[in-house]
Design a protein that fits this description.
Blueprint (H helix, E strand, L loop, with lengths): L2 H13 L8 H13 L7 E8 L2 E8 L14 E2 L4 H15 L20 E2 L2 E2 L2 H5 L26 H9 L17 H15 L3 H13 L39 E2 L1 H11 L8 H7 L4 E4 L2 E6 L4 E4 L5 E8 L4 E7 L4 E7 L6 H10 L3
Length: about 350
């Protein structure tokens, strides 16, 4: 979870929730048009909202300069929102008995040798899913790859070499402290595909995406309409490709699929994976040692903001896209923001928090 996003949310909520006379639709259109028009932070932006009354979608811009208008079905890179789906896949496979969430991760490696241990304490699948493994944020040698597409050629041999080097960092034992790790989630996806004996995307589609009706959530756009990623200077940049670390950030999705996912998580629709989904919302570890109120769950971050309310939150980013997802269990409200730009989504988050989540 990006610390800047967390601080931004706290400031917005502390500042209060001014309301305007315009309709919800007018206000949403205005903030989106400012984003894709005058501010030119992105060629495309979509907001999806969900509560007990149903869903609403607002969009502005085109897939790229001269491209097609975007809508709630347009695909965007969702970056680290992928981790929510990897975590759910873990709980589904755990319920089936395919994996043991508290088993040492090394048991699912090809060599089945005790790598990833510290002072006799092994990293488990749960540790990987809660960012408490002690693994670094990215592989130590990631700098030797193409930073415009950094995960594309980091393959299985690279991952296994990395794991054998035992790169556990810090003074804490596995499970004791939170430290966000793309490497950890990429490893988790790899271990799950080995346990499930199918490639990550195929396994995810069979166990999670198809049962939940998320038909436009996938790794490859497969010729579907997709918002082209753009960099900080409004320049087109490559979409990121993933090899073995797909579980940390490879998915593309639409606002409609992600809002449906939220409605299932929030029990607004009948959920065929309800038991597994609920397990992903359980508080696992404080984000800061000795401090209550903010927790890591299985994928989700549960944050208590300045209004005293707890929200489930995750965001994502690639070299040219940003995504944001939030919901509140008690209020039964949720929101999704998708943009095809490396620019921060601060003003769109501001709109969602002030005009919707209160």
């Amino acid at each position: 979870m990006n610390k800047g996003t967390t601080l931004l949310l706290i400031v917005f909520l502390f500042a209060g929730c001014a309301r305007f006379a315009q309709s919800e639709e007018t206000k949403a259109e205005a903030v989106l048009e400012a984003w894709t028009g005058k501010a030119q932070k992105s060629t495309a932006a979509v907001i999806g909202l969900v509560d007990e009354n149903g869903t609403r979608f607002f969009s502005s811009g085109k897939t790229e300069q001269g491209g097609l208008p975007v809508n709630d079905e347009t695909l965007f890179e969702i970056g680290s929102l992928t981790k929510l789906f990897t975590a759910l896949l873990l709980t589904v496979l755990s319920e089936e008995g395919t994996v043991n969430m508290d088993a040492p991760a090394w048991r699912y490696l090809p060599e089945s040798r005790p790598y990833l241990q510290k002072k006799g304490h092994p990293v488990t699948l749960r540790h990987l899913a809660t960012h408490t493994s002690g693994l670094p944020r990215i592989p130590p040698d990631m700098g030797r790859f193409d930073m415009m597409n950094p995960y594309a050629v980091f393959g299985e041999d690279d991952l296994r070499a990395c794991i054998k080097a035992s790169p556990l960092k810090g003074a804490f034992l596995p499970g004791e402290a939170y430290g966000y790790s793309n490497l950890g989630y990429g490893l988790l996806g790899y271990l799950l595909e080995r346990a499930g004996q199918r490639p990550y995307e195929e396994l995810l589609r069979e166990k999670v995406l198809t049962p939940l009706g998320l038909n436009r959530t996938r790794i490859s756009a497969d010729g579907l309409e997709m918002a082209r990623p753009h960099g900080l200077f409004h320049n087109p940049v490559p979409a990121w490709d993933f090899d073995v670390l797909a579980g940390c950030g490879a998915l593309k999705s639409s606002a409609r699929d992600l809002v449906r996912f939220l409605s299932l998580v929030m029990d607004l629709e009948e959920d065929p994976l309800q038991k597994s989904v609920k397990r992903t919302l359980k508080e696992e570890c404080p984000l800061e040692s000795g401090k209550d109120g903010d927790y890591i769950c299985l994928g989700w971050h549960k944050l208590t903001l300045a209004d005293g309310e707890s929200y489930y939150i995750h965001d994502g980013g690639t070299g040219g896209s940003r995504s944001f997802m939030i919901f509140h269990e008690g209020k039964r409200k949720g929101a999704v923001i998708l943009t095809n730009s490396a620019q921060s989504q601060d003003d769109l988050v501001d709109f969602v928090m002030k005009e919707w989540m209160q």
